[in-house]
């Protein structure tokens, strides 16, 4: 656990969150500033600063993140209407919290990813 990391503290229950799921590998909770009706963060329990630090050795955790995201998408009623599961990595992506996390976003039309 990184002692100065807000998401490590959420995993440990040291700061409150609207937790939807937790097991030995991952935790899911609602984003505090949702950009859509459904906005959930699915994160590895173990600290890594971004997905750039993850690889083959994290296959079980990454697989669990996808499985949990799919389950939560069903629970939240966006599995069929559609959703995004995305990960910001680094400054150009606008990453703010440096504990790896995947955003599950849905419940409205999200718009195209526009070519520039
Ligand atoms: P990033 O830009 O790093 O991919 O996204 C970080 C996300 O974490 C943002 O959507 C932000 O609203 C969310 N967030 C930051 N601090 C907290 C917090 O203390 N609790 C919760 N639930 N979400 C947070
Ligand atoms: Zn952390």
What order do the helices and strands follow?
A: HEEEHEE
Give the low-pLDDT segments.
Answer: none
What's the β-strand tally?
Answer: 5
Using the coordinates shown, work out and report the CATH topology: HIT family, subunit A
* Largest sheet, strands/sense/barrel: 5 strands, antiparallel
- Note the gap between the termini: 39 Å
| CATH domain class name | Alpha Beta
What strand order characterises the main sheet?
1-2-3-5-4
- Helix tally equals 2
Give a short summary of the structure.
This protein has one domain: HIT-like (HIT family, subunit A, 2-Layer Sandwich), CATH 3.30.428. It has 2 helices and 5 strands.
Describe the structure.
With 116 residues, this protein is an alpha+beta fold. The chain has a single domain (6-95), classed as 2-Layer Sandwich (HIT family, subunit A). Helices cover 21% and strands 22% of the residues. The chain has helices spanning 6-12, 59-75; strands at 19-22, 26-30, 38-44, 83-86, 102-106. Strand 2 (26-30) and strand 3 (38-44) form a beta hairpin. The termini are far apart. The structure holds guanosine-5'-monophosphate and zinc ion (ZN). The site of zinc ion (ZN) has 6 residues, from helix 1.
Please write out the topology.
Elements: H1 6-12, E1 19-22, E2 26-30, E3 38-44, H2 59-75, E4 83-86, E5 102-106
Antiparallel strand pairs: 1-2, 2-3, 3-5, 4-5
Guanosine-5'-monophosphate (5GP) binds next to β2.
Relevant terms:
binds guanosine-5'-monophosphate; binds zinc ion; single chain; 5-stranded antiparallel β-sheet; HIT family, subunit A; 21% helix; 116 residues; alpha+beta
